[in-house]
Amino acid sequence: MANLELWETLKAAISAYTGLSPMTFFTVLALAFAFYYVISGFFSSPEPPRTRALPEEVKPLPPPVQLGEITEEELKAYDGSDPEKPLLMAIKAQIYDVSQSRMFYGPGGPYALFAGKDASRALAKMSFEDKDLTGDISGLGPFELDALQDWEYKFMSKYVKVGTIKKTVPVTDAPPADDSSEGANPDGAKPAENEQSESAAGEKAEEQPPKEATVRGDAERE
């Protein structure tokens, strides 16, 4: 009811002040706004075209480099801390290049602590503890070994094998040689030599007659 009274008052005011009917008044007002919009478009400076930001150019990954046989200490240099080096990881002493998954195994990734190591035990147990970051899988149960096998199949199908971890064998000192026999008789060969020399001298003495007997025989013949 109040709205109707307000509308009647507005129509009466429009007719009184403009001399136009309400419909004519609103039509003229709409045309005036349209005219203003068109005229302002001619004089306003055009907006610069929006340029799409080009994505950063991603450098292609270098081809995997075969390293051959390296030690676990040498493998630590490929943990992703140096962006110029490939990102490597080992399972069951087999080294794989995981550079294409740097978002997972590189610095800041969820599996970054596995990079540069043989993480066989940690993967089998799904452990993130430092004590399990090793290639020693002794004592694992059948389910853990199956899980490790699944990880190995995944790496074999997705990544390139670039080397193996060199097995280090602890060097033990050899026991000293037993020199008791030589120490007891350092001149062990000498008695035998003396016996041979004495026997040779005896045979020579038997072959030659005594000198006195030879002289006596010569005197008798004279």
Please explain how this structure is put together.
By secondary structure, the protein is of the alpha+beta class. The chain is built from 9 helices and 4 strands. It is elongated and about 110 Å long. Mean pLDDT is 76; it is low at 188-193 and 209-222.
Report the structural category.
alpha+beta
How far apart lie the N and C ends?
193 Å
Q: Name the shape in a single word.
A: elongated
Radius of gyration: 53 Å
Number of helical segments with 4 or more residues: 9
How would you sum up the major sheet?
Answer: 4 strands, mixed
Percent helix range: 40-55%
Q: Can you write the helix and strand succession as a string?
A: HHEHEEHHHEHHH
Give the strand line-up of the largest sheet.
1-4-3-2
The low-confidence parts are 188-193, 209-222
How large is the share of residues in beta strands? 5-15%
Q: What is the number of E strands?
A: 4
Q: What is the average per-residue confidence, as pLDDT, rounded to a whole number?
A: 76
